[in-house]
Structure formats: C-alpha cells, structure tokens
TrEMBL record:
This is Acylsugar acyltransferase 3-like. Gene3D superfamilies: Chloramphenicol acetyltransferase-like domain. Belongs to the plant acyltransferase family. It comes from Solanum commersonii. GO terms for molecular function: acyltransferase activity.
Length: 429
C-alpha cells in the first residue's frame, strides 16, 4: 500500500461523559500508550518501501479545544477533522514522521471527539479497527486492563516478500492538489430506499442477480452516476470507465491464523469490465460486480503468493498511480477509473471506551479523486453513508443526478434523513 493515513473520528456528546476533560485526557493518553505496546509496528519508523523498524519511535497524541458546538462539525456535508490534526500529511521515511497519530478534541458544548490517523503502510481499515478496539478495551479496564488475545501481525508469515525486492508502490503519496481541486460530499441512503433500489434491479427483465447485496447495489448506482457526470464533462459518448473494488481476504486466509484481528494489508482488488456510456445499466453493473467477486472467491489467492503478482500486473495494466491523479488521467486516456472501498462490515460505531457507543463514527475526506467509500450509518446499521470525491465540475453534475437523488440525500441538507433520524440527531446533542 501507499504511505497515506486512514483518518477516523468518533464523536461523544456531553451527556455520555461522566468525567471531566482533564480526567478523560489523562485516562485516554495513558491507555493509548498502553495499547500501543501491543501494536509495535504503529510506533515504529518507516525505513523504505517495505520495511518498518519496530524501534519505539512512538506515536503522537494531541489535545485541543474547538470553539464551536460539536453538531456543527458532525453535520457538515463535507466532514473535516476537528482543527489541529494535519491528517492530509503523510509520514515520510527517515524524517521522524509518526505512523500513528491521535487527537482528543473538546468542543465548547461539552462534547468530545477521538480522532486517529493510522498509516496504511502498517495495515488496512480492519487493522485500524483492531487497534481502536484494543485501545477501547484497555481504557474501560484501566489501569488493570490486559489483552488476552493480542492482535497478530502477519509480517512475512502469510505473504512472503517478493524475490525481486520491495513492491514498487510509492513510499510517499502527495496528491497534486494544485491542478485539480477535489470535493468530497456525503450522501445518505436509508434502508427503505436501498430495498427499493434492490427491487428495481431484480425486477428488471435483464437482471440475472436475484439477491443483490447492499454493497453491490449502492456501489453500482454511485459509480454509474459519477461516471455519467464525468462523461458529460468530456463531451460524453466517447468516454469509457471502469470501477475497481477492494476486497478483504481474511475469510480466505489459512485456518491456522484465521482471525478478524489479523493485522496487515490483507486485501486484493477486483474490477468491472471497461464500460462505454451506453453500457452503464444497473442490472449489468451488479451482475458484473457479482461475477468478479465470484472469480475472486473461487481461486486460491495465497498459493505461491500468486495473488500478489496478479495485483501488481493488474495495477501496471491500468496505470493506477494514486500519488498523482492528474497524471493518471493523462496516461489512462482510454478510460476513467473509479475506486470503491466498503467498510460497512467494520463496526466502528460500536467502539466503547467506557462511556457508551459514539453518537457518530466517520472518516474524513480523502485527498484522492474518483474515490468512493461506503460506511454504515449509526442507526443500528440500517442505512448506508456514501463518501465520494470528485473534481468540482464533475461533483456539481453528480449531486444533481435525478436517478441518484431518488435513493440518496445529501448529508447536511435539511432533508438528508428521515424525520426519525433527524430527531435522533437533535436529541443526541
């Protein structure tokens, strides 16, 4: 993976917090330090593209006061981290940059947020959740909390290093923000609208998938409408596009180390075919996503490290260069690529540090273009929140797409949630 941060934030309103800010700060700082003793790579230092020295370089822990009520941050349509956390910067090799950063933010309404930035070099979103879960467990039991089953870092035991040396992914990812200003927007799809979307796809005479999953249908409609918006900018019918999706391989790893707490970038990617504009039909998109997932699940992704070689070959073929999306667009003039990652099955909303579940768990905006993230909403996982990053011109078209707005509402809009959801948000603060 590239060396960029995974930014996560948890919000806790005042009525959940029994302790004062000073007591909470000391408790979280001490438990953070103790949790890191179980996660050595995240307190190490990056030496080259494939090596992290577990040398106890350490992590950073900040505490800030934010001069606004928490709901002004929670309900922004473009969620940004509370001020002070430079999460868009990345830890450089050999310059003392930290691979993990945490920040405790106190809002003037009495609410609090816990923000973390974890380097993707060490592990994926599931890995970051394992750390947060351990931190929460230790905090609840502090000072006597110990972990009976510490997380397992796979290192070379699962995926041996390639014989020709480190993988050729850039050590530092620095998006070109001067040439292309990216905009992130968040959209909410309720459970009822997702059911309607599934029924629409299943009832189509051309549909061959009779039980589409939520991730399949949501990623399909977001990708379709974003690609159409992009085609409108480039004068349309000659445009072609493709979606690349990320898949967690933990369900297929050898039984001897099979565990949800296995730490690393245990991921692979699969893609749709390259579509012309007229091919962007939801039943076909869902069928192609299902077909690609099936092909992934029926092969041995670990035998002789074959899947790593396939990933590298695939990445070279489509010229994925995340560090410079503008350069990527020029080199990949044959088609646009949209990347989609779902963290819907990772229960960030359940993290309890001793004062209950967060009112909201979220991710911050990504600095990369054409990125789509899917995450469960807080209301008992009944809805989906979509985070999408597009350039300004494309976003202005996408957010007005009538087909998409049949099922999705902009977060931050007065009608973003159903009345029950809005009431829940108001009561939380």
């Amino acid at each position: 993976m590239g060396n960029f941060y995974m930014p996560l934030v948890l919000f806790y309103p005042k009525h959940q917090l029994e302790q004062g800010p000073k007591q909470l700060s000391k408790l979280l700082e001490n438990s953070f330090s103790k949790a890191l003793t179980y996660h050595q790579p995240w307190v190490g230092s990056l030496r080259d593209n494939a090596t992290i020295h577990c040398d106890d370089t350490g992590a950073e822990f900040f505490e800030v006061e934010v001069n606004c009520p928490m709901n002004q941050v929670v309900h922004r349509p473009d969620l940004t981290f509370p001020p002070g956390l430079s999460w868009k910067n990345v830890p450089h090799a050999n310059d003392g940059g930290r691979l993990s950063v945490a920040q405790l933010s106190h809002f003037d309404c009495g609410g609090m947020s816990i923000s973390v930035c974890m380097s993707h070099k060490v592990g994926d979103a599931r890995s970051a959740f394992s750390f947060l879960k351990d931190w929460a467990t230790i905090t609840r039991q502090y000072p006597n909390g110990e972990l009976s089953c510490p997380s397992y870092y796979v290192q070379d035991s699962l995926m041996p290093s390639l014989p020709d040396g480190p993988l050729k992914f850039p050590v530092v990812v620095e998006p070109n923000t001067e040439e292309s200003v990216e905009f992130e927007k968040r959209f909410f799809l309720s459970e009822s609208h997702i059911r309607t979307l599934k029924a629409l796809i299943v009832d189509d005479p051309s549909s061959i998938v009779q039980n589409p999953t939520t991730t399949e249908v949501v990623s399909a409609i977001v990708y379709k409408c974003a690609a159409i918006a992009g085609a409108n900018i480039s004068n349309g019918n000659d445009s072609s596009c493709q979606m690349v999706l990320v898949s967690d391989l933990r369900k297929t790893i050898p039984p001897s180390i099979k565990s949800t707490s296995t730490i690393g970038n245990i991921l692979t990617a699969f893609s749709t075919p390259i579509y012309n504009l007229e091919d962007l039909r939801l039943p076909k998109l869902v069928a192609d996503i299902r077909k690609s997932k099936h092909e992934l699940s029926t092969r041995d992704n670990f035998k002789e490290n074959k899947w790593v070689s396939e990933m590298l070959e695939y990445a070279n073929k489509i010229n994925i260069e995340i560090e410079d999306d503008q350069s990527y667009r020029q080199k990949s003039s044959c088609h646009d690529v949209y990347r989609c990652s779902s963290i819907c099955n990772i229960p960030f909303q359940d993290l309890d540090f001793g004062w209950g579940r967060p009112t909201r768990a979220s991710i911050a905006s990504t600095p990369f273009s054409n990125m789509i993230y899917l995450m469960n909403t807080q209301d008992q996982n009944k809805g989906i929140e979509v985070f999408i990053n597009l350039n300004q011109q494309q976003m202005s078209i996408f957010e007005q797409d009538k087909e998409f707005l049949q099922f999705a509402s902009p977060v931050g809009d007065n009608h973003a949630h159903e009345d029950k959801e809005k009431l829940y948000c108001m009561e939380a603060f």
